[in-house]
Write a structure and sequence with these properties.
Largest sheet: 8 strands, antiparallel
Distance between the termini: 21 Å
Helix content: 25-40%
Radius of gyration: 15 Å
Number of helices: 3
Strand content: over 45%
Mean pLDDT: 92
Low-confidence stretches: 2-10
Order of helices and strands: EEHHEEEEEEH
Strand order of the largest sheet: 1-2-8-7-6-5-4-3
CATH architecture: 2-Layer Sandwich
Number of domains: 1
Structural class: alpha+beta
CATH topology: Alpha-D-Glucose-1,6-Bisphosphate, Chain A, domain 4
Length: 155
């Protein structure tokens, strides 16, 4: 997984990650947008997703419940800003039980084809603190590892 961190014009920190997944872009896009697929891989290792609601339309909303290995469930939600299957997905990302350093961010996922695989590029921001950026970097990295495992198990 390649990674780069930089400042964004809006006065915060940005997260940029890239990974290659063993599936065509169409299948990866479905894994990113179908609630029955999302619950299989979303979240860091040890986390589960007991509920995921997705209204995949520009202006549509999504909401996930996440349960850590130990502790109570918490929620994230947002709105889809741009949907261009299977190449691009842009949406807001907001914790419903935020810490003081949380703010709504924008996630931009772009897909490209590299032969039999898909190249997934993620950018997210702006983050208020390096700590929140690191939390999301770790979460996305582990989520993409779980996504790759699900895709490999199907081939």
């Amino acid at each position: 997984m390649n990674e780069e961190t930089g400042n964004v014009e809006t006065g915060g920190l940005a997260l940029n990650l890239e990974c290659t997944l063993d599936a065509p872009p169409e299948e990866v896009f479905r894994m990113l947008t179908d609630s029955t697929e999302l619950v299989k891989w979303w979240g860091p290792h040890g986390f589960s997703i007991p509920a995921a609601e997705v209204n995949l339309a520009e202006g549509g909303r999504y909401r996930f419940a996440m349960t850590p290995p130990e502790g109570e469930p918490f929620h994230l939600s947002g709105e889809f800003l741009e949907i261009d299957p299977p190449w691009r997905l842009v949406y807001t990302f907001r914790w419903e039980e935020p810490t003081p350093d949380d703010r709504e961010t924008v996630v931009d996922l772009s897909l490209g084809s590299t032969g039999e695989a898909a190249r997934l590029v993620l950018s997210q921001g702006p983050f208020l603190t390096e700590e929140r950026l690191t939390l999301h970097r770790n979460g996305w990295t582990e989520s993409f590892e779980k996504l790759q495992a699900v895709l490999v198990s199907r081939s």
